[in-house]
């Protein structure tokens, strides 16, 4: 019977040693080895992703016969109603009725369900594509924006209804503009 506790102790010691050897007490030279990927590789991969996304947007616009224009950042826009007064500026608070959907038409968010979106232009906190697009509008304007991931929710999505690397369509109507 004394043999069993000795075997258990030996197994526990062996398990402990194997765990310790795997948790960082490896050969120091081996730990220092790392794969260094040149910055240029990351830039090229990112460039290819952006090109593919722009191609998908161009195809979507063509298939749906939309009259939209791209900006230099990759945002696509169409102003359906020009609105009145001065163009929206940074530092103003904008209130929007909106609908956000994926390219396949799946509605992710809308103001009918969540209420109007209100934000201070130029402060962040909303998609950078929305900030860029709103600066083209006036009070009363309505427009559509197609935002590639780098102007919307990026590589990770929003942990909600917008998946990673999603291209989104934002339909907006400016229902209020006020100075801060």
How would you sum up this structure, described in words?
- By secondary structure, the chain is an alpha+beta fold.
- The protein has a single domain, classed as Chitinase A, domain 3 (Roll).
- 34% of the residues lie in helices and 28% in strands.
- It has helices at 3-22, 28-32, 39-63, 111-114, 128-134, and strands at residues 69-70, 76-81, 84-87, 92-102, 107-110, 117-120, 138-139, 142-147, 168-179.
- Strands 1, 2, 4, 5, 6, 8 and 9 form a seven-stranded antiparallel beta sheet that branches. Strands 3-7 form a two-stranded antiparallel sheet.
- β1 (69-70) and β2 form a beta hairpin.
- The radius of gyration is 26 Å and the shape is globular.
- Mean pLDDT is 86; it is low at 1-11 and 14-19.
Summarize this entry quickly.
This protein is 34% helix and 28% strand. It is built from 5 helices and 9 strands; from the N terminus they run H-H-H-E-E-E-E-E-H-E-H-E-E-E.
